[in-house]
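INTERNAL AUDIT FORM
Audit reference: QA-55
Scope: verify that the stored structure record matches its stored sequence.
Auditor: D.O.
Record contents follow.
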Amino acid sequence: MLVVIDANVFVSAAIQRGASHRIIESWLSGAADFEVVMSPELLGEIREVLTTRPRLRKWISLETATLFVDTIETLVDLVDDPDEVQTETRDPNDDYLIALARSHEADVIVSGDKDLLEWELQSPPVVTPAQFESRDGAT
């Protein structure tokens, strides 16, 4: 299974326990039954949120955040950012994830973003971390 995982899932996994943490931990350990599609824009968003937002320091140190993002970068095969991004959702900033998923024929997008989860077309489908975790063989 090929999956695009939204930055908010990675951030959630870094700062709290729960479905997001279990999904990302499974992937980082090599135990997951899925592959992650990631582009430089997505990796950059994860890095920016985890390393530049002072309010996150109460949950994760800058050193740990940097190590987490560096580990992701080491393990993932980065693909090119999508050339064309069409307006699909209420939040145009989310549309690159759809373009990324479509351009690499991902099976699903995992996100906690309401705009993506309520997106009408759902091609590919968008699921929450808990929904993804509950799928057979997802982790």
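Auditor finding: record pair retrieved intact. Residues 62-75 form the longest helix (14 residues).
Action required: none
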